[in-house]
Amino acid sequence: MLTILGFVMIATFLVLIMMKKMSPIAALVLIPALFCVFVGKGAHLGDYVLEGVGNLAPTAAMLMFAIVYFGVMIDVGLFDPIVRGILRFCKADPVRIVVGTAVLAAIVSLDGDGSTTFMITVSAMYPLYKRLKMSLVVMTGVAATANGVMNTLPWGGPTARAATALKVDAADIFVPMIPALAMGLVAVFLLAYALGLRERKRLGILSLDEVLEKETETADETVLVGAGGDGDSRTSLTKKATGGAGDGTDAPDSDTDDDGFLGLDPDRPTLRPKLYWFNAALTVLLLTAMIMEWLPIPVLFLLGAALALTVNFPHMPDQKARIGAHAENVLNVTGMVFAAAVFTGVLQGTGMVDHMADWLVDAIPEGMGPQMGLVTGLLSIPLTYFMSNDGFYFGVLPVLAEAGQAHGVGTLEIARASIAGQALHMSSPLVPAVYVLVGMAKVEFGDHTKFTVKWAVLTSLVVLGSGILFGII
């Protein structure tokens, strides 16, 4: 019964958010609460939620201060050279832009943190997608899938979990899988190229200067048309042309609207060119400390955000202004994380997730025993989407490994197959980083899910198939 209710609860959640019948936060809270009552555990709902919140609180704290830290770094101009370099490469060709998104996301993913990857990637690419009216779900889908493949790095999480759960060396899992993971990354770049061609066919190709000139001409014409009307109308139209409050047709040099080239305005008051190398060194030190695990990641970002604010904005009003500027992103993301705590708390507390995992393992036909590597890889795709990595690697993977050993399949083979599904995992509603991605890109989570799942599943199958083809799995 718990198995059926678990699958129905997840399906209900996904259907409602993809059909936009409920917001993700409401669905993450209300649906598991309702199902908790259905299974007769309503009296324990508070305990389940508090346990879920306790488990995710460090993640929420990390995201909160990471958003503030990288928001400040963007404000002061740390990433401006990166943005300019990407724009010079991409120009206004949708193919180059989408491929550039995949390359940037893959490179930044080397730090092993999905939230950092998404913040930097969206900050760099979002203005260009908006200016050219490109599909934002293409950006989020490509970034999430590229990060999912790179998430298999030993310091990214899944590989370390698999190594810990099965008591093997992480290097013995990851190094042999490099060719298969490289094929997965190639698949992401080919996907980006194909999606870019589709966007190019829809939009055509312009130079960046032509885009800005067209917008300026349109804004000027709008002002002239409105000049003969009453004073209020003229004022409103002038604001549209100069980057004030309007309907989104802001001038290209605006630094007050999300649609503008925020990273390219050389005159924005938050720039700190004299502190550029300090900020760069601080960021490198912070990422190094994350990789080397000198301190817990939430503590590192808390210290980094406090130091970045203090050095770059020593006056209290300026610090408050910067915090206020990023408060919306902080609230959206941390709110989603704590809402997800209800979902995960009920899944784990009621025992649904355990019953679902046991049912899936028991459903494996006896004749598939010698193919447990393939079975593990296939199961990793849906299970790491519907479960946390901790739940899959510490709860399900040991069972799969035992089943594999009974049929002569080595533990390392099972471990390598288990990381094949990570391309899809990074778009799971249980991954806090995905809310950073869709929140900063201003994309509905349901739209992101509908667009990304099929491509992420395909990428995961490429990784798995390559591993089998190369004799790794």
Would you kindly provide a written description of the structure presented here, covering whatever features stand out?
With 473 residues, this protein is mainly α. It has one domain. Helices cover 75% and strands 0% of the residues. The protein is built from 22 helices and no strands. Helix 9 packs across helix 22. The longest helix is centred in the middle third of the chain and has 34 residues, at 170-203. The radius of gyration is 24 Å and the shape is globular. The model is unreliable at 218-264 (pLDDT under 50).
Write a concise synopsis of the structure shown.
The protein has about 475 residues and is an all-alpha fold. The protein is about 75% helix and about 0% strand. The relative contact order is 0.16.
Structure keywords:
473 residues, Citrate:proton symporter, Cit_transptr-like_dom, globular, 75% helix, mainly alpha
Reading the helices and strands in chain order gives: HHHHHHHHHHHHHHHHHHHHHH
The DSSP helix count reads 22
End-to-end separation:
34 Å
* Range of helix content: over 70%
Number of strands: 0
Provide the structure class. Answer: mainly alpha
Biggest β-sheet: count, sense, barrel?
A: none
How large is the radius of gyration?
Answer: 24 Å
Classify the beta-strand content into a percent band. under 5%
| Number of structural units classed as domains | 1
Look at the structure and give the mean pLDDT: 80
